[in-house]
TrEMBL record:
One of its GO terms (biological process) is tRNA 5'-leader removal. Consists of a catalytic RNA component (M1 or rnpB) and a protein subunit. One of its GO terms (cellular component) is ribonuclease P complex. It comes from the Bacteria. It is an enzyme of class 3 (hydrolase). The gene is rnpA. It comes from Tamilnaduibacter salinus. It catalyses: Endonucleolytic cleavage of RNA, removing 5'-extranucleotides from tRNA precursor. Keywords: Endonuclease, Hydrolase, Nuclease, RNA-binding, tRNA processing. InterPro entries: Ribosomal_Su5_D2-typ_SF, Ribsml_uS5_D2-typ_fold_subgr, RNase_P, RNase_P_CS. It holds the Pfam family Ribonuclease_P. One of its GO terms (molecular function) is tRNA binding. Its EC number is 3.1.26.5. This is Ribonuclease P protein component.
Length: 131
């Protein structure tokens, strides 16, 4: 049975780790409620960092729920290339239920993987006008 942990090796831990992603973005996938930025790393696995501000997710319970779901979704992505990834929340994220958030994240991970492999030529946005 695979480990259910989310080890330190899978996380961006320091401000320097986050700055590296923001300064050298090579892949960007957007959704109405989420933005994922990524850059290749020198490790053998992907790492993720999360940024969900009080401005966009007012209540701590909402921020914690979304972070938990993003971490869980990331943990199940075994085919992501060696990248440092930052997931940012946007307005309206608190109103999304868990099942829909999982579907959105699955689609974003697939698009990120496609972009990282070089087959994605331009950024496309989904659900930009619908809710």
């Amino acid at each position: 049975m695979p480990s259910l942990r989310f080890p330190k090796q899978a996380r961006l831990l320091t401000p320097r780790d986050y700055s590296g992603v923001f300064d050298q973005v090579t892949a960007r996938v957007a959704h109405r409620h989420l933005l994922i930025l990524a850059t290749p790393n020198q490790r053998s696995h992907a790492r993720v960092g999360l940024i969900f501000s009080k401005k966009n997710l007012r209540r701590a319970v909402d921020r914690n729920r979304v972070k938990r779901l993003v971490r869980e979704s990331f943990r199940h992505q075994t085919t992501l290339p060696a990248m440092d990834i930052v997931v940012l929340g946007r307005k309206g994220l608190a109103g999304i239920d868990n099942a829909r958030l999982h579907r959105i994240l699955d689609e974003l991970w697939q698009r990120l993987e496609k972009k990282a492999s070089g087959s994605g030529q331009h950024e496309s946005k989904t659900e930009t006008g619908s809710r």
